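To whoever is covering the structure queue this week,

Two jobs came back overnight. Logging them here so there's a record in the thread.

Job A:
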Amino acid sequence: MIVRSANACIVGAILLLTFSVASAHHGDAGRYDEAITRISGTVVALQLINPHSIIIVDVPDESGQAVRWQVEISNATGLSRIGWTRETLRPGDPVTMAGRAVKSGAPYINLSENSRLARGDTCEELFHSGLGSGREPDYPPLSCEQ
């Protein structure tokens, strides 16, 4: 009887642990627009962190006022595999990117699907979804034209 109780506790603990690990990475179904949004601005900071790195960018609105956007991109390990370092983007660097913005209208964009990021001054593409896998996004390469 004690063995059965112990086994039941072990199985319960394993199921609880499996559920908590499985739910740790959330899906984004319904969170982002399907349409691709293009923004251009100036880098404020690059945060190479896990599970998703963040680029903070000031983007001018219609009146010329800076709006601070958060740009969610791949994790630090994935970016380092394609050559990114803390020097890849520095404060003051101009950038242009295309990705999926949140439906809420908040200044937040995700670069995980059908996305691109390029330097605004040279048009050098620094990232696109599928980079390293040989897959190109459907969104065309970015131009430097504003």
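Job B:
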Amino acid sequence: MSTSVSTLDRSTPDRILQRLDWQVIRRLDGLLQGDYRSLFYGYGVDFADLREYQPEDDIRYIDWNVTARMNTPYVRQYVEDREVTAWFLLDLSPSVDFGTTLTQNLKRTMLIDFVTTLARLLTRHGNRIGALFYDGLTPRIARAIPARGGRLQVLRLVNDLLKQPRLARAPFTNLTPLLTGALHAIKTRSLVFIISDFISAPGWERPLSLINQRHEVLAVRLWDPREVELPDIGAIFVEDAETGEQLYVDTHDRKFRARFAEAARRREAALQEAFKQAGVDALSLSTDDDLVRAIVRFAAQRRQRRK
């Protein structure tokens, strides 16, 4: 799945939703077998009982430990809440407008497609969605969309995302105001998606941990391949997407490319450690990823952790 920036700019919310319904959501329905709970398993689903397996039961709910002890198949039964409230915490700072792949995808493009897909999956099962926008320019949430259900709510969210101004310059992003703002804004237990490239000043780790104590939190980290490995293309100017600071570098220099890659590995290790310490599952979403495969991979990882 790829969408060019120019195509996205010309799209309307209806067209984006229609495209994703055909290209992404239908494929997810087949691959996840309609079981979207595998993505949000920790929220709204409580273990109720065990009973012997019946021929029509889903084999994914077999409790293998009990089956081994009883020498006959047993399945777990769950009680699912009728309604989930999901919130999208969206980092729309200038660094999400970076992208260098052949498909010309920006991180913002992937953000819009991912949010639209998940919002559609949730609302068509009767759940409510809301969103908090953060642009990195001011130390507060830039826009809040109250949680509601239905297809119109998805279209409103996409419309607001398309209209969100793209800032040419901003101070270095600090995700702390977005996370602390969410702590105050989200009153009841919810499913919270934090979607960002997590290029931020330090200090956001503690509010992330506090949010995870109150809600089920899924972090979606946006990244581009050129942020972790530079190609050998000679002498170039590189520009900070947020501050506008420019630096002249020689990518022919193998030692420089190696230092760049090592710094990226250290950032990645620190980020994964922060997610681990906060107890938050994280989906890594690249600008050249196939969105369906990325979501299915993430669902499989979450199922594996819960075995």
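Note for Job B: Residues 1-7 have pLDDT under 50 and may be disordered.

Please reply-all if you pick these up so we don't duplicate work.
Q.
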